[in-house]
Amino acid sequence: MSRKEDKVKDDKKNIKDQVEDKIDDAIDEVEGNDENAEEQADTKDQELTEEELLKEDLQKEKDKFLRLFAEFENYKRRTSKERLELFKTANQEVMTAMLPIMDDFDRALNELKKSGDENLLTGISLIHNKLKETLKAKGLERMEVEQGSDFDSEIHEAITQVPAPSDDLKGKIVDVVEPGYKLGERIIRYPKVVTGK
Length: 197
What we know:
Elements: H1 2-89, H2 92-115, H3 118-137, E1 140-142, E2 157-162, E3 173-178, E4 181-183, E5 186-189, E6 192-196
Parallel strand pairs: 2-6
Antiparallel strand pairs: 1-4, 3-6, 4-5
Pfam families: GrpE
Main location: cytoplasm
Protein name: Protein GrpE
């Protein structure tokens, strides 16, 4: 029996070895498939990564283009606005030079009213109105400031302060010494006023 037992043991061992070999082969095959799958997955990842990289690059280029386009649109808008502003205020020097002439006309009209010569007053008034309307057509506008108006340091230039003739004129404009003018929306000469204290 010992031979039989030895033979059975050898057969079992052989079967066991064969089973282990088969299992090892199966494991190797599965691992090989896993490695191939990993290699394929790595290749797909690389392909996807390359595709994703290309998409990212395309998106970056689109962003650059949009930003450049937006900058260009802002530049066009800004320069056209500056150009319009320049056209509106290009004659500012000429208008500023004309302001003393307007002041002289106002003083002359006040003196002619005192003299009582109606013909002379009418002639000078016509010339004064024509000059005033021509300058107004070019954008010059007289700022309306009256006695009793609130003083605003942003748009008025205070020459001096005098005691207020009445309590309601305290901190307000008592007299307008020189009128102010605007060219479009820009003040080119601030009205010179006397305020009450």
